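Running this now, will post back.
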Amino acid sequence: EMIVWGGCRCDKDQTYTNTGGKYDPGTDSWASTSTTNAPSVRDNHTAVWTGTEMIVWGGATGDSSPPLNTGGRYNPDTDSWTSTSTTNAPSARRCHTAVWTGIQMIVWGGEAYPGPTYYKTGGRYNPAGDSWTETSTTNAASVREGHTAVWTVGLTTPVMIVWGGYNGSNGMNTGAQYDPSADSWTATSTTNAPSKRFWYTAVWTGSSMIVWGGYNGNIVMKTGGIYWP
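Update: finished.
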């Protein structure tokens, strides 16, 4: 199934929601997700799939509203929600990124209003223990939102790669690789990197990251690049 959840009807009536649905392509049918114990209404949150659950975290209810550092784990088999701990959780934010490593969720970056404040901090969430561990900021990528993050499953030492984004003044074409096993960061090369941008897309192929499209503050982009970690 595909699970969608949360969001805002921002082009209609500025209504934020904590509802969702499960889509079964085999039968071309939808089933609603329970709202019992679901996280509060929000948009600009993140969601990852663990293999058994969907974890949603963060977000906000408007550009000028205080963001959230709450979330929930949704089990589609039982149609039930379990809240995520806020103990040691990253500070509240929206427009951050999240990846699933196979054992934990890593959230990083993002922004918060009022301010705005941009972050280069993050956290690792372990659903087995419902616990958070902060990510190092030593040599981390600089503050940003509107960036992307991929998990490099298949590499001998998998890492999270973050790249691009917006720092409050400009688009960016810098990034870094984060190794959760060592809690360490290594900068990505800028040689032949795509031009600065945010609000683009990125995918992991098994050996490389492909970024494409986006916005640079003036024009919509139709260029991209392949990064070989």
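The mean pLDDT is 97. More later if anyone needs it.
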